[in-house]
Specification:
This protein has 218 residues and is an alpha/beta fold. Helix content is 39%, strand content 17%. α4 packs parallel to α9.
Length: 218
């Protein structure tokens, strides 16, 4: 198994500009919100080290700024929940694990679902979801296709959960999928590495924030 992200195969930088042409590409930002990314959110308050997540968000900010300049479609996805909308399957899973109540994250009331550090601008795609995949129960696919998008550059949290689920569903829907390996993060480095490894082997190509910026600057 790979010991570091740098050990994983990444797409050739020279070939990347043609693959992620701004005219047909969307930059997708997943779950950069208070409960998942802020020290004041539920994950941060539980004592999880969010240092690597903050570094990933730094890179997402850079990618957003450039994407907006060159005309890349931008989409934001976030989890927004309420007690009435909680998944029965998720509630039951947590109960069976002996951890009832842990599904109560990213509540619409209380600020946990709020964007953190980044947020959509007027005219950008924005979807709310209840669970992991940005496509499940949303109109993200329709919005992307209406804009002529067939390629996704995916960033966000967490690599092993919502990023993974979104990437796999995107591939099943016919998109060309790229994961920005240093603009995604998990709360465990090994989860991050192994998830990238599994996704790359099955449904996506890996790239880096610097490579994407170089491609779009051309």
């Amino acid at each position: 198994m790979p010991d570091a992200v740098s050990d994983l195969p990444h797409v050739d930088k020279a070939a990347l500009p043609e693959m992620i042409s701004p005219a047909r590409t969307a930059l997708l930002v997943i779950d950069i919100q208070t409960d998942f990314a802020s020290p004041e959110g539920l994950i941060g308050q539980a004592g999880v080290d969010l240092t690597s997540a903050q570094i990933a968000i730094d890179r997402i900010e850079e990618l957003l700024a450039l994407a907006r300049k060159v005309g890349v479609t931008i989409g934001f996805a976030r989890v927004v929940t309420s007690p009435d909308s909680d998944s029965i399957a998720l509630k039951t899973l947590m109960e069976r694990r002996g951890r009832p109540g842990e599904e109560a994250i990213c509540r619409a009331e209380g600020g946990g679902a709020d964007y953190y550090r980044v947020k959509p601008q007027a005219g950008e795609i924005e979807i709310s979801k209840l669970l992991y995949s940005s496509f499940s129960g949303t109109d993200l696919d329709a919005q992307l296709k209406a804009r002529g998008v067939d390629t996704l550059v995916i960033t966000g949290l967490t690599t092993d959960c919502c990023v993974d689920s979104t990437a796999r569903d995107a591939f099943h829907l016919g998109y060309h999928v790229f994961l920005v390996s240093d603009a995604c993060d998990a709360y465990d480095e090994q989860f991050h590495i192994h998830s990238l490894n599994a996704i790359e082997k099955n449904c996506a190509l890996l790239t880096t924030a610097d490579a994407v910026k170089a491609a779009w600057q051309r």
